[in-house]
Amino acid sequence: MPRNVTFGAMSARGFGIYQPFGFVDGTIGLFVLGADVRTTNKYSFSNNAVTAGTSLTQEVHRGSGAGNKTLAIFSLGESASTVSNKYLFANDAVSVATSFLINDNNREIATGNATRGIFSMSSTRTNKYVYATDTVSNGGSLQQTKDNGTAAVGTETAAIFALGGSNRTAKYNYATDTAIFGGNLTGTMNEGSGAGNASVGIIAFESGGTNRYTHSVDTAVVGTSLTSDLDRASATGNSLIGVFGTKDAKTNIYTYSNNVVVSGTNFTIDFDHGAGVTNGIAGVTM
Q: Structure pTM?
């Protein structure tokens, strides 16, 4: 018999979502709240509980993050030069990790799979962080400058970067470290965020509008709008839902199967230029 997966007051059975026993998926989203603070919050996908995580070693501003079921790697952004932090989900331990090769004073963005994170840095350049060895190298270049803040989603084989200041996307192949143009969005991206699973990515615009990007055909259509604008927030999730930070410490939960958006639990402080990483997306990072 399949089990009923619940998200706080919402029942996944009501949304027609069933997962078999033994199904493994992410359980928490780890958010660095930005605005030149070190504060982290952990968002539980099962009951919408928000709890304090371990603070990072330095303040974050315009940073980004990627990870897998074991760890998260955060680039601390323009406030910390090339510094990175490693966050272990098992014990909430934080340590300084391998430095990036590039510093970016224009909001970074990142995504990845189970073995590596791709960090979009200055201009069209990227850095690749390999989790097993804590090594950083130059990745492939994107098609155009990402400009002032973008969003990223992806699968286990490729990342989709929304290129800020335009409606274009770049599709980054992890195996070859090369990028080509992906499908166009329906609007211009600026200061957005993204979350998704192996099939679709939900890309949110600063206004709170969204696009639903289907990876198999590289096309984007209009999705359900969030309840407020983003105000430079970030997002993460598991294979069923995305948790989007919105304005004034608020959150929204986006269910991928039916495009339903509901309000989530507030963070402990306002979200501003932070980053979000999950401890797993089935079929993508675990």
A: 0.90
